[in-house]
Design a protein that fits this description.
124 residues, alpha/beta, Rossmann fold, five-stranded parallel β-sheet, 5 strands
Length: 124
């Protein structure tokens, strides 16, 4: 698959785990123009409000201060930006409903680079 459509894109990675951030950076660095990082849901909301260049958000489901679900809910009130959840949580009926309601798509951890890139390309 050709991932050239990502070359001029800016992606916000909302992830509080350092190792997960590093892995996502490694997966995406060669493909996207810019990566922006946020460690909690409040930073995500503020970043999307302040930076019109962000094309997509990769949102950890469980973030400190404001959860990924709540952050996505709030973003939906002022932006149509695609938000893809990433979670290692067990998918209960409630979790699946939240993922389907507040996110454009989701990835279950651990995922590989190809799965990540294909999912992002669907929305960009």
């Amino acid at each position: 698959m050709n991932f050239d459509t990502l070359k001029d894109k800016t992606i916000l990675i909302a992830e509080d785990d350092f190792n997960s951030r590093l892995l996502l950076q490694e997966y995406l660095d060669d493909y996207v123009l810019e990566l922006i990082f946020a460690k909690d849901g409040l930073q995500v909301i503020n970043s999307v409000k302040e930076n019109q260049q962000i094309d997509l958000v990769l949102m950890d489901f469980k973030l400190p201060q404001i959860s990924g679900v709540e952050a996505s809910k709030r973003i939906r009130k002022f932006s149509a930006i695609p938000v893809i959840a990433q979670t290692a949580s067990i998918l209960t009926k409630e979790t699946k409903e939240q993922l389907n309601t507040y996110f454009d798509d989701y990835l279950l951890k651990p995922f590989n680079q190809d799965d990540l890139l294909r999912t992002i390309c669907k929305y960009l």
